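Subject: sequence -> structure tokens, single chain

Hey, anyone have a minute? Need the predicted structure for the following. Not urgent.
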Amino acid sequence: MFNKILIANRGEIALRVIRTCREMGIKTVAVYSTADRDSLHVKFADEAVCIGKPPSSDSYLNIPHLMAAAEITNADAIHPGYGFLAENSKFAQICSDHGIKFIGPTPDMINSMGDKITAKETMIKAGVPVVPGGEGLLQNLDEAIGLAKEIGFPVILKATAGGGGKGMRIVWEESEMDRAYNTAKAEAGASFKNDGIYMEKFVEEPRHIEIQIAGDQFGKVCHLGERDCSIQRRHQKLVEESPSPFMTSELRQKMGDAAKKAASAINYESVGTVEFLVDKNRNFYFMEMNTRIQVEHCVTEEVISFDLVKEQIKIAMGEKISGRDYIPQCHAIECRINAEDPYNDFRPSPGKITTLHQPGGHGVRVDSHVYAGYVIPPFYDSMIGKLITVAQTRQEAIDTMYRALSEYIIEGVKTTIPFHLQLMNDERFRSGNFNTNFLEGFQLK
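Reply:
Had a minute. Here:
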């Protein structure tokens, strides 16, 4: 059992980890930048340490400051949450070197999935379906044009060290390749300090479906069902649900088995997510593996009645998992509540929350770190909460979500609540007839 866990993160996920630790009898240390001194995760932790100025590079990404906080508080483990250093193998190695348990996979496991070319090669060897494409990084524009002709347009250029849509460009015809290639490389270099890009066949009308997995230190792996994350804007997820309305029992079995193969190929330990693109004919292709807890883990927790953060901590303590695969027993939907103006191209809307009323009632869960009077800083991701509803059927979960959104009052800043309200009433969404292109042309009324 860990005595004390430092949470190397902020906001909602830090508070989420603190709650589970408290239930497990484990003391917690919150870290915070000067901009976050009034955040709830600081108030609810057993101890709190300021680690720097507001910019992430001076605080949440500052490894020496984080390690110093762990040393002075005698923390014996660090939970990285998601984002920031959650998939940073250097950080995981430094934790290990200092005798502090990194609650997540080993540095080698992170590296094997952090580089997408390496991950793809590993999946091919493991027998996991991958999107057709080149075997390595593109060396020049001529190679990109030649490979695109061989694969067949449309193709997509991706940053090997990428995520969140950075360094990614769709190329529909040869005349677009020059600009797309140079732009993708420049964006990848600026975002990740690695301008390596590769090419894949672009899967049209895809769904983004991910499989939640868990693996222990003894080689046992299981899957815990799927999440449909197809409602996206600029490759950023806005709504997630489980089970996927596109899923069949046969497809779940196949995708679950493929996800377990992916995890077993690197002897994965901890919780993680294997993400797939699924075409309209239900062919699925490995996209990437996230070696951390996901923002949308709550959806899975609700449909299988399972604490994924607790499982993650127990695996890090050396406990065995059951090895049982899980199937969703009900339906859950999550809406990400962001401090953004949906009427103004989703522009971030930091500032002071003057009024806050969060919804409740049967089948409603709110994970958030904000409160009335809280000032949303402009330095970090704009997500200020997650609203999750659960019911026996998808239609009931949508109806509960609409009711809960109608009760959710946030004044002082703009939020994505109006967008979500309209989405819950959209007939195509309600029918389950959507893919990752759904929001193209979506007009907010």
